[in-house]
Amino acid sequence: MNENNPSEAAKAIVRRNTEEVQGGGDFALFDELFADDFIDHTPQPGRTADKAGARRLYQVLREAFPDFHAVIHWQSADGNLITTYKTYHGTHKGEFFGIAPTGKQISFETVDAMRVRDGKITEHWGVANLFSLMQQLGALPAAV
Predict the structure, then answer these.
(1) pLDDT tens-digit map of 75-115
(2) Which strands sit side by side in the sheet containing 69-78, from one edge to the other?
(3) What is the pTM assigned to this prediction?
(4) Which domain holds residue 121?
């Protein structure tokens, strides 16, 4: 960790979560990176706002999209609050929000902010383009 630049160290922690946990399925690392008192201020439907809820969401995404991964376009730091803009990609091979596997390639954008304290992710706020994802899976009509 870059102790001389706390913002860069916090960005690296968030990047590891995106690449190694979400993208690589490393749930032992999830347990290391997330604080026990983690709070998700914008939990996805059907998920709790705690560490267990975030872990379950990541598992559900990996089950539905086994090759789930993100391309990080940019990160910005405001002290220990890291904002990341990224595009997730994957192949729909498992049930997701009640939608049977379609085999379709998907991608959707997300902007999220994560607070990092003492080397742990403690808070999350996020906006994901789930409307686009659901259109790609055929659950919503295509845009006109």
Answers:
(1) 999 999 999 999 999 999 999 989 999 999 999 999 999 99
(2) 34-40, 120-128, 105-117, 81-91, 69-78
(3) 0.92
(4) 6-136
How many folded domains does the chain comprise?
A: 1
Two tokens, residue 33: 């990176």
Q: Enter the tokens of residue 128.
A: 């994901």
- Examine residue 143 and state whether it is found in any structural domain, yes or no: no
Which of 87, 76, 74 lies closest to 22, judged by CA? 87
Residues 6+ apart with CB under 8 A from 38: 50, 51, 54, 120, 121, 122, 123, 124
CATH of the domain at 112: 3.10.450.50
20: its two tokens: 């190694």
Cβ 133 vs Cβ 108: under 8 Å: yes
Residue type, 132: S
**Averaged confidence pLDDT in the chain:** 95
